[in-house]
């Protein structure tokens, strides 16, 4: 019995060699979801097995995440630490500056307070000395404050805060505990003008403390005086004290006038320069010697 081919005439038969791979691809394509699930399961098993072998280091995902983010963490931590340190340093500097400012203010206030206390202490000492001197004097005096000086670079007059309201008159002696200041030349109701012994128009009857030679102290300006009318043959030495003689009827006897600082020969009389005993350029408080009451 003869078999006949069923292949149409002119049609080519499919190649036998390609049939296997095509069937495999067709099978895989038809079961794609199955193979994907199988791949996921295999991956899970692989990861699970690796995690089991790395029990001491923790889960693999965690290890991988830590390893991946560690550089970023270090950079971020370094930046945060640097910023925190800079902010802390800035805050410390600001607090230190505020503390220094507070301390400077306190120091300035303390210095001002100390100066104020020193000034009060000096004033108390000055007034106490003036009061003690007043109590030792055998004549009546009235205390006065210096309120002004005559205009000019080398002023030879001052003004005090007592006048006719305190029974002051002209030609009254003005003193300090250190020595003679001058005499009153003008009197007003509440003030008086005092001519200092350094003025050329002034004159103080004087006597040398050692030789007891008498003369007259005249003003020489520049905060100095001259002892006049001392004969050339009279012994006078620098450093000798000059006292009031009381012969001018203005200044009581025995008060300090000054100290001889220079002696020279003249035509008839010596040229004697005297430094006033009182600090005439720093006067603050003085005593005015009152006239004794007239006897009836």
- Described by the principal axes of the CA atoms, the overall outline is rod-shaped
Distance between termini? 199 Å
Low-confidence stretches: 1-7
Helix content: 25-40%
Main β-sheet description:
6 strands, antiparallel, barrel
Number of helices: 3
Strands ordered across the widest β-sheet = 1-2-5-4-3-12
Radius of gyration: 58 Å
Indicate the mean pLDDT.
Answer: 81
What's the CATH H-level homologous superfamily of the domain at 141-289? Rod shape-determining protein MreC, domain 1
CATH class of the domain at 141-289: Mainly Beta
CATH topology of the domain at 141-289: Thrombin, subunit H
Structural class: alpha+beta
Can you write the helix and strand succession as a string?
HHHEEEEEEEEEEEE
Give structural notes.
The protein is an alpha+beta fold. The chain has a domain at 141-289: Rod shape-determining protein MreC, domain 1 (Thrombin, subunit H), CATH 2.40.10. Helix content is 38%, strand content 24%. The chain contains three helices and twelve strands; from the N terminus they run αααββββββββββββ. The protein has helices at residues 19-30, 32-53, 60-136, and strands spanning 141-149, 157-160, 173-175, 180-187, 192-196, 204-208, 214-221, 224-228, 241-244, 256-264, 271-276, 285-289. The strands form two sheets. It has a six-stranded antiparallel barrel. A hairpin with a 4-residue loop joins strand 3 (173-175) and strand 4. The protein starts with 18 loop residues before the first helix and ends in a 7-residue tail after the last strand.
């Amino acid at each position: 019995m003869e078999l006949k081919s069923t292949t149409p005439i002119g049609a080519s038969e499919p190649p036998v060699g390609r049939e296997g791979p095509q069937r495999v691809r067709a099978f895989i394509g038809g079961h794609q979801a199955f193979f994907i699930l199988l791949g996921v399961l295999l991956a899970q098993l692989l990861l699970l097995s690796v995690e089991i072998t790395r029990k001491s280091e923790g889960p693999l995902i965690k290890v991988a995440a830590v390893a991946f983010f560690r550089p970023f963490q270090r950079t971020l931590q370094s930046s945060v630490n640097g910023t925190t340190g800079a902010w802390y340093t800035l805050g410390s500097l600001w607090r230190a500056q505020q503390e220094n400012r507070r301390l400077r203010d306190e120091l300035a206030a303390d210095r001002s307070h100390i100066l104020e206390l020193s000034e009060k202490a000096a004033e108390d000492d000055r007034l106490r000395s003036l009061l003690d001197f007043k109590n030792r004097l055998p004549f009546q005096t009235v205390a006065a404050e210096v309120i002004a000086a005559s205009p000019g670079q080398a002023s030879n007059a001052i003004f005090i805060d007592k006048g006719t309201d305190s029974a002051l008159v002209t030609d009254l002696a003005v003193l300090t505990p250190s020595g003679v200041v001058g005499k009153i030349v003008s009197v007003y109701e509440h003030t008086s003008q005092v001519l200092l012994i350094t003025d050329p128009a002034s004159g103080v009857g004087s006597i040398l403390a050692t030789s007891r030679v008498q003369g007259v102290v005249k003003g020489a300006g520049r905060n100095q005086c001259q002892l006049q009318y001392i004969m050339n043959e009279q012994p006078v030495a620098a450093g000798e004290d000059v006292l009031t003689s009381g012969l001018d009827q203005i200044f009581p006897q025995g008060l300090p006038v000054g100290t001889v600082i220079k002696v020279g020969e003249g035509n008839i009389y010596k040229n004697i320069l005297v430094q006033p005993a009182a600090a005439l350029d720093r006067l603050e408080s003085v005593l005015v010697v009152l006239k004794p009451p007239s006897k009836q």
